[in-house]
Amino acid sequence: MERIEILTRYTANFVDGIVQSGVTDVVISPGSRSTPLALTFTEHPDIKEWVLVDERSAAFFALGMAKEQSKPVVLVCTSGTATANYFPAIIEAYYSRVPLIVLTADRPHELRDTGAPQAIEQIKMYGDYVKWFHEMALPEATPEMLEYVRNKASRAVYTANEGNPGVIHLNFPFREPLTPDFAIDKLWEPIGLPHWKQIDQLVYDGEKQLSSRDLKSIVTQLKNLKRGLIVCGPQMEPRLAESVANLALKWGVPVLADPLSQVRSGHHPLDNIIEGYDAILKNKTIRDLLKPDFIIRFGAMPVSKPFLFFMKENKDAVQFVVENHAGYREFTGNRTQFIFANSSQLCERLFQVTDFKMDPSWLRKWKNMNHIAKKHILSSQEEKMTEGEAVRSLFEVTPNDSYVYVANSMPIRDVDSFMLNTEKNITVLANRGANGIDGLISSGMGAATSKKPVTIIAGDLSFYHDMNGLLAAKFFQLNVTILLINNNGGGIFSFLPQSNSNNKHFEAIFGTPLDIDFRYAAFMYGGKYAIANTNDELKELLQTSHNQKGLHVIEIKTDRAENVVWHQKIWKVIEKEIIERWG
After folding, report:
1. Please, where are the H alpha helices in 258-312?
2. Residue 358: which domain range?
3. Cis omega (within 30 of 0) on the bond before 165?
């Protein structure tokens, strides 16, 4: 068998193994050494390829797509520093538990450490940020080797999704020539391996469930307590919202719902969902009025810093953190019990417990405080555009069954404060694993491949940091609206001690004004641009963009100093009314 046929059958069996394991999308970063993988994925009839030239953007694009699909997406790149440009998205995927399969092409072993071009050390280059690394064997086409590549493909897909999802890295050494021959007979068939045709799936995996004994132990600890809290942090389990909402109604307890919990929106009961807790908990006196007996948290730690203070001040409360598989996402230092079981099933089993008698005044107090917070959030009206009002307006007109992808720093905090409960199905996404601002636009573009409406909320720094991501909208004709909140710098720092008026270096190091006219970026990538000066204009522009195809960038301009004063004024009014009533 000639070398090209060996290369072709080896690569084709691997790619077909990936596809047969359920992967539907591959993101390809062009390059020479990756030619066998890139062309073979493109040739396969049952996988969709997305080609993006910027590896850093491509990796975040794949991350957004995988987050939206809740299943692995494949990344392919050539050797050298192309592989390093994937690293930021790999780190984010690791911490936010997103399944990615990274396939890096490499020089063959004889060209490594010899000064050959585009040959860097790629073995385990992503360190502990991947769940599994494997250096693939050099191509052969014996039945044993074809079985080997199919097994590795299947294992990669399973391991990426197994337990807490994460990143798989397979490194492929390829010798030249690199171009496969797709005229070869029976290209996608496992020649010499007829049993592969008869297999529907290679792995059967179940969900974790507590034993009756463990469940009884938890119930015993909780049943005599009167003031309980359920907390839902960032998570993507689709059934959890309804299960948690029903449990909260049955027990008569409030649910503090992070905007990334997917609990603030949907058709489940919203009666006990407290979305204004970030505003309520900003004041220490109010936090002291709300001391719980127990806290059960689902998902990661919420975005809210006041909630973090609240947790640290209530170390004596009985505390549980529920994880579907495993993990220790609890950094308060509190004495915490971990429950590793399917979250929805756990709620449904706890729902069957009948002898809980909570203090009804506890739930009433939370609801009344939440009503006060929402009243002032909704009643705030300013002549000049404010960032919080812009976010609130966005959610008022966001279409049903859509995605909102949010930048870190100020935008996610404004979403936390100003996204109110809604019966619309709105999935809110953000890259909260490592909390960086990079890759926002690319990730949102990846989510937009779902064909559902996507709105990205970006600050001017996160927009600038990932402008290359706009190319995906042009290349793939994606329908994306970007709300660009331009306060000419890092707005979050204006709320931090670094903003002290005596800090003469604040603007240069923290404020970092860009002074960029962003309209030209939108035009360069074939998008439409508009600026909104009032909330009514913003709503009208947003609604128009949702009814049209393509990329729309809608900018609002705000002042960082005024933004701090405006936020503080709202928090003070909420704080004053709550303390007057209960303090």
Report:
1. 277-280, 284-288, 305-312
2. 212-375
3. no
